[in-house]
Every structure is written in structure tokens, then in C-alpha cells.
Amino acid sequence: MKKSLHNPELNEPFPESKEQFKKIVCRAILLKGGRVLIGRRVRGGGKGKWVLVGGKLDEGETPEQAVSREVKEELGVDFTPELVEILKDQISPDRAANEQYPWDVYIYAGNFEGEPHFKTEEISEIDYIDAKNIDNYDLAFNHKQILKKFFDLRNLS
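Now predict its structure.
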């Protein structure tokens, strides 16, 4: 049985206002052979650094719908997400000054179908990361901590 970082007490109704939607971001831990696909960010906060694929919700979307859409848009692959963790009130130094407010980060993991073909306006390159080579990458936001915790709990160290 897989260990989970998910805390069921954090399952709460999704935001109903536009303002609340702006403060949610979803990230995908895209697994392939025990390694995780990451992309080098082209723009925005964390530009030039490696990130987990994902993004913000569109109005009316759930985080699960958003992460599936983002993976399809950015990589052209189908992803079956499983909620791993919800990180509340995260503030990142990699964000622009006008985005320095608390974010709720929904983290999903799962396998993906197909060969990734990334959109160059979003991602300049992709690579696969594991517990052994994670320190070789300049990861944006709190993605290194997320991945180290994930690798440890899933015994992928």
C-alpha cells in the first residue's frame, strides 16, 4: 500500500470566488520508472529554474481538473492524478512582488500516457529527476522539499 501525505481533514469545498481561485496552484508529480518529469520554466516566477508541471485554476475548475488540463496543455500527455498533499498558505520568494500572498498548493502524483512534447512558451526543456540526482537541479519554489518528501515516503530514495 502506498503511503500518502494527504490529510483528509484538508478536504474542503473548493473556492467559489474569483479572488480565492487566484490563490490556488496545482502541481503534478509525473512518474515514469520511479523518476519524476520536471520542466525548465520559461517565464514568470522561477523563470529559468526547474519545476513540477502545473499551474493555476481556471474559474469553475477543481484542482484535479486544473492539473490534468495543465499537464495536457504543457506536455501533450494524459495524466491520471492522485491527490498527494495540500500545502496551505505557502509564500514563495520565486514569485513576483504582486504575487507575494499565501497560496494553497495542491500536489498530485501519477503516471502519464504518451511521449511528452512540451510547449516552448511554457517550458524550455524537460528532464527526469530522482532522489539520487535531485541536488543537481536548481528547483523553483518549494519543489525540492516536496520531491524529497515524496521520494522518501514512496521509498524511491
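DSSP finds three helices and eight strands in the chain.
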